[in-house]
């Protein structure tokens, strides 16, 4: 295969560029033809992906973090090029969700005939995402993490952002529609998942499946900050879903409306504010796996 390797130079605080020489060496053992680019912006990356489809490129290999995948999705959706992923970000939840090996070298071992995983490509307000999109408390935590204020990556860094976000957070009222059923709740957060993991290893939707055509929705009703903090560790094992103030729903179309100005994040990236409409249709993307 002719594979275009795309490196995000800022992912993981520059970790990608430090690892690139080793990655080139590991990839050289694979029976494929690789070409390498390092686009300076997300816009340039999407432009290069669109051009690749007309230049005989048969697959992509993204080097970066969850945000790298998210930013590439619009162009991947247009070209339908299969892509592989080498996780070099801070949270690396996409790698968890598709079951990539924890060792980067193993992920570089692409066989002559790689296997392909087909996964759903849902959208939030027409913006494609692949793992999880959410609003409320988890979005506030994500905002702190992206601002870089004291965040140094991984699970521990995310926990620190949780503690910071908790100080100023207030529950809010939201009108929720799942398919044809509508109701109102005072909530801490609403998380719409196409995959189980987000936030550096938190198993927010344990039963989510990336190719079943259905969202798993986690709604945390209003609880005290102390209760939220006490229950928070359970999310890493997925046992938070048994709490009486946690509602788990499934559906294909979700709409959230609130008088509060609440931001929405998807795959760790800011995508807008409420109101929000989530949809999951028939479009799939192909992921190369080692």
How would you sum up this structure in a few lines?
The protein is of the alpha+beta class and 290 residues long. Helix content is 28%, strand content 34%.
Report on this model:
This protein has 290 residues and is an alpha+beta fold. The chain folds into two domains: 112 residues, Rossmann fold; 156 residues, Tumour Suppressor Smad4. It has eight helices and 19 strands. The strands form four sheets. Strands 6, 7, 8, 9, 10, 13, 14, 15, 16, 17 and 18 form an eleven-stranded antiparallel beta sheet that branches. It has a four-stranded parallel beta sheet with strand order 2-1-3-4, sandwiched between helices. A two-stranded antiparallel sheet has the order 5-19. Strand 1, helix 1 and strand 2 form a beta-alpha-beta unit. The longest helix has 15 residues. It is globular and about 55 Å long. The mean pLDDT is 94.
Structural class, by secondary structure, is alpha+beta
- Our measurement of the CA-to-CA distance between the termini, rounded to an integer number of angstroms, reads 14 Å
Number of helices: 8
According to CATH, what is the class of the largest domain? Mainly Beta
Can you tell me the residue ranges where pLDDT is under 50 for at least 5 consecutive residues? none
Assign an overall shape: globular
């Amino acid at each position: 295969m002719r594979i275009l390797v795309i490196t995000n130079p800022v992912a993981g605080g520059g970790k990608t560029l430090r690892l690139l020489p080793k990655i080139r060496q590991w990839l050289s053992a694979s029976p494929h033809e690789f070409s390498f680019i390092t686009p300076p912006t997300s816009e340039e990356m999407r432009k290069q992906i669109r051009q690749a489809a007309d230049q005989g490129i048969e697959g992509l290999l993204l080097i970066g973090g969850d945000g790298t995948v998210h930013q590439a999705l619009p162009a991947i959706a247009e070209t339908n090029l299969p892509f592989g992923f080498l996780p070099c970000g801070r949270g690396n939840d996409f790698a968890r969700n598709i079951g990539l090996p924890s060792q980067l070298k193993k992920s570089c071992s692409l066989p002559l005939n790689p296997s392909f995983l087909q996964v759903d490509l849902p959208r939030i307000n027409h913006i494609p995402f692949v793992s999880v999109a959410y609003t409320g408390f988890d979005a506030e935590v994500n905002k702190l993490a992206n601002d870089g204020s004291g965040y140094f990556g991984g699970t521990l860094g995310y926990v620190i952002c949780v503690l910071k976000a908790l100080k100023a957070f207030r529950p809010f009222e939201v009108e929720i529609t799942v398919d044809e059923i509508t109701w109102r709740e005072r909530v801490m957060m609403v998380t719409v998942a196409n995959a189980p993991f987000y936030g550096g290893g938190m198993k927010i939707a344990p039963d989510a499946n990336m190719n079943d055509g259905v969202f798993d929705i986690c709604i945390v009703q209003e609880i005290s900050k102390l209760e939220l903090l006490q229950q928070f560790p359970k999310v890493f094992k997925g046992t938070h879903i048994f709490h009486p103030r946690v509602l788990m729903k499934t559906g294909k179309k979700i709409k959230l409306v609130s008088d509060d100005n609440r931001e929405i994040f998807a795959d760790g990236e800011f995508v807008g504010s409420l109101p929000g409409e989530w949809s999951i249709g028939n479009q799939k993307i192909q992921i190369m796996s080692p």
